[in-house]
Amino acid sequence: MRTRLAALLFFFLPAIAFAAGARAVEMENKPLPPVPALDGDWNSWATAHLPLRDQAVRANVALTEALFGHAPAYGFGYPKVIEGEEGWLYFGDDVTEACRQKHPIAETITALRRLAERVEAAGKRFVLTVAPDKTTISPQWLPARFPGHDCLRARKQEFWTALEKADLPGYVDLRAPLERLQRTTGQPAYWRTDSHWTDRAAATYAAELAHALDPGLAAKTGLVFTGRAPREGDLGILLGAPREETIDRYRLDRTGAPRYEPKTVLIGDSFTRNSMPWLTPYFANLSYQRNDGPVTWHDAETVIVEIVERHLVGGSSPMLGLD
């Protein structure tokens, strides 16, 4: 009898909830998918639009944490989110990319060099930078052990060693400046509940690019503290259990400062997208394109490419043209 009741609840509770007014909500850090074509992926659409799905995911997270002390694992057995000490969360894709590489790191380095040569052969100035993973810059709150711990550490070491030895054209290092920022300020360069860097780290990214293009751009430039504010990080949402933290907010002041005049295309991912308020004040003519879609630079004088570390470690960046 209890088994039959559980089965009935499993199949009909979402429908009852829908009739009562419950609706699906955005999860996994992305919007709900639209209605697919007749031959499209209806299973994924139905799963995403299932009423009470967010409550079910949160219940699963709570139960798994209570029983096993970590977030649920999905796919290949690696968690979507790694829960560290003192409420710190880390993006599980750092591990998945490292432990399930699509291409070896040597191929990735070769592809980056080929990209640089192609842009420069077209008569453009080329700049390349890598947004380090949070697990690289602020790893001190990671748990002592987690699925994929050993291959994550080994692949990261292999990648950064290979990148340093490669001496790629136009490469601008961000790892050392971000680690220096943490030492000098005593504050993490990444938010506790988010996969991305803080305002000050975003400003550091912008300043390093500007200095590489023209050291004179640093004139009349300052970072202004604007107060503290609550913020809900993307990793809590991805976990299915939103987490809020209070963060320091800053803005860039470049009143009367020089700007980089050549027409520039900046091709990046979410790290660049989130950093645009600190990047755009340095440029007179800047456009942004995503690095996971079609890109064009035919009418640009300067091309800047930013790719997050995990996609280079895993060999999965569409910019590499390896697939």
Structure description:
The chain is α/β, with parallel strands linked by helices. It folds into two domains: 1-51, no CATH class; 95-320, no CATH class. The chain has twelve helices and eleven strands. The model is unreliable at 5-11 (pLDDT under 50).
Structural class by secondary-structure content = alpha/beta
Estimate the global geometry from the Cα principal axes: globular
How are the strands ordered across the major sheet? Answer: 6-5-11-9-10
Number of helices: 12
Strand content: 15-25%
C-alpha-based Rg, rounded: 22 Å
Order of helices and strands: HHHEEEEHHEHHEHHEHEEHEEH
Number of domains: 2
Span of the ends, CA to CA: 53 Å
Any low-confidence stretches, pLDDT <50, length ≥5? Answer: 5-11
Mean pLDDT: 85
**What oligomeric arrangement do these chains adopt?**
single chain
Fraction of residues in H or I helices: 40-55%
Biggest sheet, open or closed, and with what strands and sense? 5 strands, parallel
> Number of DSSP strands?
11
